[in-house]
């Protein structure tokens, strides 16, 4: 049937660097689907205005989602006409400014998440089942400590990593090269990483995210020091479309390489996956453009024998989405968790998000299995003077 649900944006201010953004689609019977669009960058406002224009012209949500995915081929780098690189966009330590392509994909991802969730709830089926999983299995999650850090000395890195381990996590990721001037980046970043390794038990896995802040020559220079950290993976040490650099870093034998958090289609990562130089693909349900796009990326990785770990330094909506998605991505797919950023995080949704630990099961119930609770504020949509969007949607 055809309805005119309401579309609203909600925000939760988390820290100096993080704001969670969630879109809701609410049908006439009160059933609501949720989707997260956090870390889309400043370009998101322009994309929401574009969505507004499409809907005003009579496009359906499905048509709008499809149109947001147009404008570049599946194999094109996710850059706009100004040449901005979204691989640097969702992290404030990366430059230049975010590309509209990242914002378009992330807004599209939020709309697709919300639409899929709404349909699953109307069917009375859990989201993992709608996505094709056979069961709601426990999903392994690792702790990303980057957003829990208030200051970034080696001691702060070490204390936060130890706190994550004490909270039950068996794998910890840090981004030690963030926020440092180029002249000090390699030396000081390695000091931070060594402090984390010393703070953790040998049995606790450590991953390092370089955030594409080092040149290939710097990574190769640091190869012995990085290898000594006994890393589970080294993330974003080199861009996945740099075949020569990827081969060189892989040959250095530092650790399995990981990347792909901003990929939107298999063609963008196919060469890297088939090269044998990539150990882990990291799809993001937001930045990929939603559940369907993330599943295509995961299928491409599994076909190439590459592990799948869902990128998710995000809020509780994207985290719940990632749990359902991981269940559908295969028996070994895992996910990321933004450890320690907000003490009230679990209470921002209902039922409350489970406490810390190495394993987490998808929420029970129809659809995503959670609803927004405290700490969320309605956010006026562009050009609408704060009014709720009205649109046609076929359920």
As residue ranges, the low-confidence spans are 72-98, 383-395
CATH superfamily of the largest domain: Enolase-like C-terminal domain
Major β-sheet profile: 8 strands, parallel, barrel
Question: Would you give the CATH topology of the largest domain?
Answer: TIM Barrel
Please compute the radius of gyration using only Cα atoms.
20 Å
Q: How many individual helices?
A: 12
The counted number of beta strands is 18
* Strand percent estimate: 15-25%
Characterize the overall form: globular
Give the spatial strand order of the biggest sheet.
5-6-7-8-9-10-11-12
Helix content: 25-40%
Give the mean pLDDT.
89
What is the helix/strand order? EEEEHHHHEHEHEHHEHEHEHEHEEEEEEE
Q: What is the SS-derived class?
A: alpha/beta
Number of domains: 2
Q: Please give the CATH class of the largest domain.
A: Alpha Beta
Q: How far from one another are the termini?
A: 6 Å
Please give the CATH architecture of the largest domain: Alpha-Beta Barrel
Question: Can you offer a commentary on this structure?
Answer:
The protein is an alpha/beta fold. It folds into 2 domains: 2-128 and 373-394, Enolase-like, domain 1 (2-Layer Sandwich), CATH 3.30.390; 130-372, Enolase-like C-terminal domain (TIM Barrel, Alpha-Beta Barrel), CATH 3.20.20.120. 34% of the residues lie in helices and 17% in strands. Strands 5-6-7-8-9-10-11-12 form an 8-stranded parallel β-barrel, surrounded by 4 helices. Strands 2, 3, 4, 16 and 17 form a 5-stranded antiparallel beta sheet that branches. Strands 1-18 form a two-stranded antiparallel sheet. Strand 9, helix 10 (266-275) and strand 10 (280-281) form a beta-alpha-beta unit. The chain is globular, with a radius of gyration of 20 Å. 52% of the residues are buried. Residues 72-98 and 383-395 have low confidence and may be disordered.
């Amino acid at each position: 049937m055809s309805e005119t649900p309401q579309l609203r944006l909600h925000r939760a201010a988390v820290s100096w660097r993080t704001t969670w953004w969630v879109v809701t689609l609410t049908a006439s019977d009160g059933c609501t689907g949720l989707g997260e669009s956090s870390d889309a960058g400043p370009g998101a406002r322009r994309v929401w205005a574009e969505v507004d224009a499409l809907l005003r012209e009579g496009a359906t949500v499905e048509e709008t989602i499809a149109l947001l995915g147009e404008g570049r081929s599946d194999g094109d780098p996710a850059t706009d006409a100004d040449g901005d690189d979204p691989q640097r966009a969702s992290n404030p330590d990366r430059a230049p400014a975010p590309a509209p392509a990242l914002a378009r994909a992330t807004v599209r991802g939020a709309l697709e998440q919300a639409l899929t969730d709404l349909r699953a709830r109307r069917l009375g089926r859990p989201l993992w089942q709608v996505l094709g999983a056979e069961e709601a299995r426990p999903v392994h999650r690792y702790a990303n400590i980057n957003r829990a850090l208030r200051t970034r000395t080696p001691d702060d890195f070490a204390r936060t990593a130890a706190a994550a381990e004490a909270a039950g996590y068996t794998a910890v990721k840090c981004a030690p090269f963030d926020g440092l001037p180029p002249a000090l980046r390699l030396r000081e970043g390695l000091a931070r990483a060594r402090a984390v390794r010393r703070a953790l038990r040998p049995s606790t896995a450590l991953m390092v995210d370089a955030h594409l802040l080092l040149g290939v020559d710097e990574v190769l220079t640091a190869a012995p020091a990085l290898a000594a950290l006994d890393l589970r993976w080294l993330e974003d040490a080199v861009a996945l479309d740099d075949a020569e650099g990827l081969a060189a870093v892989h040959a250095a034998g530092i650790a399995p390489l990981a990347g792909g958090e901003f990929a939107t289609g298999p063609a963008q990562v196919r060469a890297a996956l088939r090269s044998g130089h990539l150990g882990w693909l990291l799809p993001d349900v937001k930045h990929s453009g939603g559940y369907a796009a993330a599943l295509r990326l995961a299928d491409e990785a599994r076909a190439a024998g590459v592990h799948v770990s869902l990128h998710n330094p995000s809020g509780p909506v994207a985290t719940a989405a990632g749990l359902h998605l991981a269940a559908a991505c295969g028996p070994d797919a895992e996910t990321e968790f933004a450890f320690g950023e907000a003490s009230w995080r679990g209470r921002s949704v209902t039922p409350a998000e489970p406490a810390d630990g190495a394993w987490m099961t998808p929420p029970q119930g129809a659809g995503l299995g959670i609803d927004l609770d405290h700490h969320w504020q309605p956010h006026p949509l562009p050009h609408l003077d704060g009014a709720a969007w009205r649109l046609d949607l076929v359920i």
